[in-house]
């Protein structure tokens, strides 16, 4: 690995081989790692909300599952990935706080996961693995060399999906 590329909240970046890419503190947000296993071009989006069409101020396209995934794929293709080889792994989408009643605002994590899966399916990107839901935050690292998506959570064992 040459460099660990950092992706902020509501952000996305492409990660060329042999680098790795990380994002910290996924709570209800979802980290979507997309990868071309042949060219080894990877990318990671840290999405906060499911749907850009529901929000008036939606100029930050990386914030939303629908537009963030589309933009990431476009950038990856420009960087040498082949669209029909792309595969994905996702993590996050936790319900960080316990509330009685399941209003849509409370279910933001689950809605982010659903929206991410739907957009990947719509774009023909196969979802290989996920570590989503529950009630704890995650930090993720994606390695272009192996395709490993490593999930770290406080007080939990490190997971590789």
TrEMBL record:
Question: Which chain regions cross the lipid bilayer?
Answer: none
Keyword Lyase assigned to the entry: answer is no
Q: EC number(s) on record?
A: 3.5.1.44
**GO biological process annotations for this chain's record?**
chemotaxis
Which Gene3D superfamilies has this protein been placed in?
3.30.1330.200
Keywords assigned by UniProt, alphabetized: Chemotaxis, Hydrolase
**Reaction equation(s) it catalyzes:** L-glutaminyl-[protein] + H2O = L-glutamyl-[protein] + NH4(+)
What are the protein's GO molecular function terms? Answer: protein-glutamine glutaminase activity
A Pfam family (short name) is: CheD
Record family assignment: Belongs to the CheD family.
Question: What is known about what this protein does?
Answer: Probably deamidates glutamine residues to glutamate on methyl-accepting chemotaxis receptors (MCPs), playing an important role in chemotaxis.
Q: What is this protein called?
A: Probable chemoreceptor glutamine deamidase CheD
Q: Which organism is it from?
A: Candidatus Galacturonatibacter soehngenii
Its taxonomic placement starts with:
Bacteria, Bacillati, Bacillota, Clostridia, Lachnospirales
| Gene assigned in the entry | cheD
């Amino acid at each position: 690995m040459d460099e660990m590329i950092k992706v902020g909240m509501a952000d996305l970046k492409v990660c060329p081989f042999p680098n790795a890419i990380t994002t910290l503190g996924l709570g209800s947000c979802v980290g979507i790692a997309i990868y071309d296993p042949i060219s080894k071009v990877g990318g990671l989006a840290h999405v906060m909300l499911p749907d850009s069409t529901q929000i008036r101020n939606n100029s930050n396209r990386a914030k939303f599952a629908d537009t963030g995934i589309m933009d990431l794929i476009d950038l990856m293709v420009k960087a040498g990935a082949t669209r029909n080889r792309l595969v994905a792994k996702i993590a996050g989408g936790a319900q960080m706080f316990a509330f009685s009643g399941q209003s849509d605002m409370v279910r933001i994590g689950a809605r982010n996961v659903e929206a991410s899966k739907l957009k990947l399916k719509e774009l023909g990107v196969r979802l290989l693995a996920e570590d989503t839901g529950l009630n704890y935050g995650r930090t993720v690292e994606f390695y272009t060399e192996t395709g490993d998506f490593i999930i770290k959570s406080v007080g939990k064992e490190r997971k590789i999906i």
